[in-house]
Amino acid sequence: MEAFSKAQPAAQILDFNVVRIAPLTIRVIFVGPYFEPKIIDAAALESLLPKEKNGRILMDENTTGVMYKFDYEFIFAPSSFRTKLLKFLTSIEERIEIENPWFYTFEAGEEWFVTKPTKVTAAIYDARKVEEWLMENISELGGQPENGYTIIIADLRDLPSATYNEISAFLKARTFGITPPQVKAHYYKVNYVDFDRGYRLRYREFAIGWGGSSRFWFIDLSAGPTFVSMWYDLPIQVVMEDQSINPFTSNGAMWLTEYLADYIWEFIYNLAAPDFVYDPPWSMRFTIKISVIDCRSEIERAAVPIEGTVNSTLIEEAIRELLPLSEVDVEVAFLNISGLPELNALIQKYSGVLKSWIHEYLFLSPTNLPYVDAQPIYEYIKGNLNLFTPRIVRNESEYVIPIVAFAFSQDKHFMFKYKWLIAGVNPETRMIWGFSFREFALIGLSHRDFLYGDYVEPKQEGKGFGFSQAIIHEIGHMLGLSHPHTYGDLGDFVCSAMSYFSYEYGFSVFDKDALARMHADKLLIKAYKEVSKAKSELSLKLDPEGVSAIENLIINEFNGLLAKIDDEYSRMNYVEAWRMALNAYDMARKILEKTESLPSIPREILRELEEKDLEIKLLNERCLELEAKYETLLSELSLSRGLIIALSIIVVSLTIVTLLLRRRAAPMPK
Ligand SMILES: [Zn+2]
Question: pTM to 2 decimals?
């Protein structure tokens, strides 16, 4: 294509099947005692990493039409950089004795065991400060690529770090019920408070990586172990000792190379080039219609007024960041379940209490949990969305996203089943708060969530969770975003509302990039298709001046615009590329319109031509048929000729034989 005739196109459209090729650089910076070129062979490492990756829309089981091509750059930080980093970390270190969910122990309960997180003294570093420091200091190592993402993989085992002996001693102690020994470990913390109800989240001290406020992410392989990934991401020094890995042998070096490749792979799939759950919708205006349905008792309603559980300004701000080129409106309506008798009856009908010996004693998870089966409620709301959102528009000028949020009484939540399993993985509440579907998002919090601080140790009296963060997360899904832990749990250590570990009200640069890039790509593909259609129609147009005017428009303006977009895209100015792609799409539509308005070869002539074409086609077919028949006849003929000759030979031979036999049989003359 003309527009992409540069030697090294940043993004290019391949003809025919319209696939956009998007090159991305992945810069990997290694900081660790064994991360040096003598041990980590760059060629071997690169052979283990994806060269390209199709963008995918997971729920549609479809591709996005964009293929990423990766260029890798490996940088081995000098030991002086590592020393400087260690010095900085020590300067901000906090030693905290704190309950750590990875280090849980069993206690004998009435019938079985119960689990209890134990307190571990840990060295904690502020994740955001570390991210900031690394961002400032990587300029020493060449900074960030112009068209790509940077990952720092560090091994900082000189910090207080868990050892193989400590971990195995802890696990033995847990199994045999003896007092576990002291463990030292280090982690990165982020502080989170629920903005609606003021609850301060627990267990957010146990990250082992962080990033996402720019095109950058770091992972500390020597930190942990973390409950976010119980077994797959044990500290590197623990696994190396456990498996007796000596990185100075060929085998050990290869082990380490493969180990690092897995972390880079996860970074690419989760953060740098993520997939989408739904095909990201585009519109000039997004209207988010939130219906909060209060199902609580009068006393509960008085204790926590429903209006204080959701903040439309926060939601609007978050979504505007994702859709900077659209208008975003958030409307919240508060309803009472008594006004929705049919839905109320359905909730009663499908409510229950989860009582499961297996859940309680084998899974060691809470039981006696009141629930509402989400499936029939989803079906009902899907069929009656007009009760909540009378005007569902979904086109390029407006797109309505309905959110239906329930405030249940006491401790009731929605429940979704897989086979018999009822999963709950939130380390705080172990509940599922929301689901997003194609049509709308369904959210359910309980009165107990609004006052969750009353039920934890130490108490946070009167504090709890509200709806806003869960709503932002679910809207993220409805706009296409997937979880950053889709391909491995560590991706959750990112400042994104899509993470389960974080409790952000905003989105990461990875989220924003993915969405802006996808919208630019989609618009460009659409524009390209329109112009291709126009081009093929131009050959049938009669007005030579009109045709050449449109051809000039395509060559000079449309292709020129594509080249400019390509330039912005290649410098990762995705929002600008997206804005310009909107113009390109607009221009492409006009080009097609203009083409269509030009006089064509008259219809009658076209029809006659088509008829003649058809006649020729039929004649050709007939000709082929006759040829085939002729061939068959010929071969049959040659077969029958052969048969006649063979038969004649047989007849002649038989005659001779008969004659001979006769002569022999004749009586000898005496
Ligand atoms: Zn989710």
Answer: 0.87
